[in-house]
Design goal:
- The chain starts with a helix and ends in a 12-residue tail after the last helix.
- By secondary structure, it is mainly α.
- The protein is built from 14 helices and no strands.
- The chain is globular.
- The longest helix has 24 residues, at about 1-25.
- It folds into 2 domains: about 15-120, Tetratricopeptide repeat domain (Serine Threonine Protein Phosphatase 5, Tetratricopeptide repeat, Alpha Horseshoe), CATH 1.25.40; about 120-268, Serine Threonine Protein Phosphatase 5, Tetratricopeptide repeat.
Length: about 270
């Protein structure tokens, strides 16, 4: 009987200690963060709620309403990932890939990204495609990159569409096809992704796979800059010095009237 009581007391003390430590970790939260909301997420995560575990991991990773702690982030991502949460599996894979919260490990990164991708997570499919494209932790394999980018592209994932366009432009893993590349860039840009728009601006500025066109370069950089992309803001400033007033006005009118582009087809 005494043994049971002692175990109960120890359990209570551990719970109180964990609660105390967690309270200390949120002591410096900003005004926009509510301690009771953070406590609720933490309590649900401790009880095994998989979505709360992933949410808490994200909070620790980003330092959102809580002191940044990569090791805690990895711990909570793992708890959710082991329950099959696809976003947590990707998050855990990216932590291994970046070496955050522990040693950098491309093999573990790929393992968890594959688990997420197999649950049809477009962002994880894109991540795997990128690893094959850039030879990050794996042997460079353009065919594998194409396969994974296409999986993500079927979800309309803008960066995957853009990378496919680059591969068709350069003939990497596929027969060079500027028409298909242009269609893929069109589909990517239509998603409104600022990084894709910034990249398109650079392509038109330098004439990479497309005819050089300062007006279109300015337009894409302007659209991206309006969403806060710093590279686009810098590019727009650079190219403005090379353009006539009439060209800048033309670009601004195009931005003002811009709508998602009508593209020829969906990606194969």
């Amino acid at each position: 009987m005494k043994s049971i009581q002692i175990k109960h007391i120890i359990t209570c003390m551990i719970s109180m200690l964990l609660s105390c430590c967690f309270s200390l970790s949120i002591a410096g939260v900003g005004r926009d963060c509510k301690n009771n909301d953070i406590d609720r997420v933490h309590n649900m995560a401790v009880q095994g709620d998989v979505s709360s575990q992933h949410r808490l991991g994200m909070m620790y990773e980003q330092g959102e309403c809580i002191f940044q702690d990569y090791q805690e982030a990895v711990m909570w991502f793992r708890k959710a990932a082991e329950q099959g949460h696809p976003q947590a599996q990707r998050s855990l894979g990216l932590m291994y890939k970046a070496g955050k919260g522990g040693p950098q490990d491309d093999k573990e990164a790929m393992l968890w990204l594959l688990k997420s991708a197999e649950q049809d997570q477009a962002d994880a499919q894109f991540d795997i495609g990128n690893m094959y494209y850039e030879a990050t932790g794996v042997t460079q394999d353009y065919q594998a990159a194409i396969t994974w980018f296409r999986k993500a592209a079927k979800h309309g994932y803008a960066k995957a569409l853009f990378n496919l366009g680059l591969m068709y432009t350069n003939g990497q893993g596929v027969v060079q096809d500027y028409q298909e590349a242009g269609n893929l860039f069109c589909l990517a840009a239509g998603q409104g992704d600022p990084d894709v728009q910034a990249s398109l601006g650079m392509m038109y500025y330098r004439g990479l796979g497309v005819k050089q066109d300062y007006v279109l370069a300015h337009m894409w950089w302007d659209l991206s800059a309006l969403q806060g992309n710093r590279d686009a803001i810098e590019g727009r400033g650079l190219i403005s010095n090379l353009m006539t007033h009439e060209q800048i006005v033309q670009s601004q009118e195009m931005v003002k009237n811009w709508k998602p582009l009508r593209c020829k087809t969906e990606p194969e």
